[in-house]
Amino acid sequence: MEPTAEAAARRAAFARNRSLTMTRTKRRWWRSDARALKEILSNWANVLLVTVPLGLIAGALNWTAEYVFVLNFLALIPLALILGDVTEDLALRYGSVIGGLINATFGNIVEVILSIAALLNGLYGVVAASLLGSILSNLLLVTGCSFFFGGLFNKTQKFNATGSQASGSLLFLAALGFLIPTGAALLFGSGDVDSNSDLVLGISRGTAVVLLLCYGCYLGFQLYTHTDLFEDTPEESSASLWGWRSARPFRYLTSSLTEFSKSSGLSEAFLGTIVLPIAGNACEHMTAVIVATKNKMDLSMGVAVGSSIQVALFAVPFAVVVGWITGHPFTLDFDPFSAMALMLSVAQSNFVTAGATSHWLLGVQLIALYVLLSLAYYFK
């Protein structure tokens, strides 16, 4: 049966239109790709995502320490921004307490794992420097930047006074917990090295247990008995977790520390206490600053100060207990300058947060103290 003239005309018109469409598509394919590329390059964080695979490749193929350190340092920045967006979503859905706690946990879990790995390898100095540096970085630099940038967008900002008081007193308790073994090593010394070691080890392990119990009480206070004093009204929102993405870049960053110190001329004390915690706390740093600019100071404080509490009351004592169980004599006997730096940092932080109100000048004060301590560690 022969097709009608009308059907043949429709098929011919369809063929012409299809041919014209394909021709236009072939001619203009590059325009859509160019627009997509422009969209990617318009955000500097998307550009830095390139350093994530490069950093992993550099670490896996054992490139020079400079390349491994720098590439993985940069790789943590876009990953931190992603975690910041996720944390804000979590806060909208579950409230600022849960959002801040989850961010602090996922930001610190990498440091806890790597600290335990270093502990089991007998690198007690690296463990002490990185954990102490993490407390200083969160307490001074992260909180200071949150106050400063939040104050630039908002003249004054308020946060929960009860939560601030509880956090400040717990941090002071943790600082005393580190100071007591350090002071005991200096003042109770009998001249016998083995006797002094046993003394400090016993005090450190007892202190670690007490601090872990205090952290459990803090969680109960926040999440159960006094939730109404901390919590904002949650809103419905979707959420996902990205905190684990920074684990491998941070591992390569840590493994290249010693070689990078030798090649750069920077001391391991400075890199371990100042530089490395800045990279490790990139998640908390970006998140706290971003939400502070949006005038969500309870969430910002929950991330920054909450992370300091988690390291001081959980990560450090947990390392002591793990060392106790595995036969590694890790103690809380920090060097006197580090113990003094921690006490001064906690005292300054309590001063600037006492009024439960922040502005950019308070942020400058916290950042200035962190710079002063950094200078001391640089020339140490």
TrEMBL record:
GO terms for molecular function: calcium:proton antiporter activity. Keywords: Antiport, Ion transport, Membrane, Transmembrane, Transmembrane helix, Transport. Pfam families: Na_Ca_ex (PF01699). The chain crosses the membrane at residues 40-61, 67-86, 98-120, 126-149, 170-188, 200-221, 303-325, 360-379. It is a multi-pass membrane protein. GO terms for biological process: intracellular calcium ion homeostasis. GO terms for cellular component: endomembrane system; plant-type vacuole membrane. Residues 68-223, 252-375 form the Sodium/calcium exchanger membrane region domain. It is found in: Endomembrane system. It comes from the Eukaryota. This is Ca2+/H+ antiporter, cation antiporter, membrane protein. It comes from Volvox carteri f. nagariensis. The lineage of its organism: Eukaryota, Viridiplantae, Chlorophyta, core chlorophytes, Chlorophyceae.
